[in-house]
Amino acid sequence: MLIFDRVKKSFNGKVIIEDILFQLKSNRVMVILGPSGVGKTTILRLSAGGILPDEGKIKSDATKLAYVFQEPRLLPWRTALSNIIFVLKGDKNIPFKERDKIGREMLELLGLKGYENYYPSQLSGGMRQRVALGRAFVVKPDLLLMDEPFTGLDLELKHFLQKMLIDLLIWHPTTMIFVTHDPQDAVRLADDVLILSGRPGKIAVQFSLDLPREKRDSEYLHKYTMKLTEYLIGESLWNQQNTYSKF
Fold it and tell me: Which domains can be identified in the chain, with CATH numbers?
């Protein structure tokens, strides 16, 4: 689905990432962790095709792409319903009445039935982010890129949105890259985890989680969040030259 083959990228003569090598299979979720400035968002932009690598190759068979940012980036002059169906306007095979029906069904799936005609300024932060998730999923993307969408939210709301994202992935399975600083995001959401470190950013650790998301109970989440946190704060992580296939 998505392959990075020894990818290197620089900006203004400064190398941001180098020797990035991974393969993300169809309908799997990869969570990318690492400190600020290590190149996580650069990998997202390369995956979207918005920028090209300086060295190496990127192969992707994605034809329909969606992007979710830390800020919802809703159009303030459009209602919640209009923000969702706006992205369907380019599909001439979907008439207006059908777009309206799809949008309303999505809002109901998001728990926002009754808020169809509310503008972003009338919605809470969590509601706005739900609309942003709905806007991304309504196009049924085959590659979904998420750039720290839950940063800055309180813990209860964050867990609520994580659960909603898992439900949406059941509703429409898709290949996803999720960038975050939070190891718990990885343990809750990921099939595959990739940790970047260094300047320029390189892959320090790469592994897969063996238990399906819906079966990860609180004990599992605590155990592997602590274990992943140890990787992140340990000095050995930043100096590690090899990658790991699993925990």
Answer: 2-64+141-239 (3.40.50.300), 76-139 (no CATH)
Q: DSSP assignment of 78-135, as one string?
A: S-HHHHHHGGGTT-TTS-HHHHHHHHHHHHHHTT-TT-TT--GGGS-HHHHHHHHHHH
Q: What is the dihedral sign for C-alpha 44, 181, 161, 86?
A: negative
* pLDDT beyond 60 at 197: yes
Angle at 73 between CA 179 and CA 157, to 5 degrees: 60
Instruction: Express each pLDDT in 155-189 by its tens digit.
Output: 889 989 999 999 999 999 999 999 998 899 999 99
Res. 92: pLDDT tops 80: no
How would you list the strands of the sheet with 2-11, edge to edge?
14-24, 2-11, 55-60
pLDDT digits (tens, 9 = 90+) for 12-49: 989 999 999 999 999 999 999 988 889 999 999 999 99
Asked if pLDDT for residue 198 goes beyond 90, the answer is no
Distance CA 84, CA 80 (A): 6
Please state the pTM of the whole predicted model.
Answer: 0.89
CA distance 120 to 137: 18
E strand segments, the chain? 2-11, 14-24, 29-33, 55-60, 65-68, 143-147, 175-180, 192-197, 202-208
DSSP SS3 for 34: coil
Q: How far apart are CA 92 and CA 153, in angstroms?
A: 37
Cα separation, 108 vs 101, in Å, equals 11
Share of the chain above pLDDT 90, in %: 68
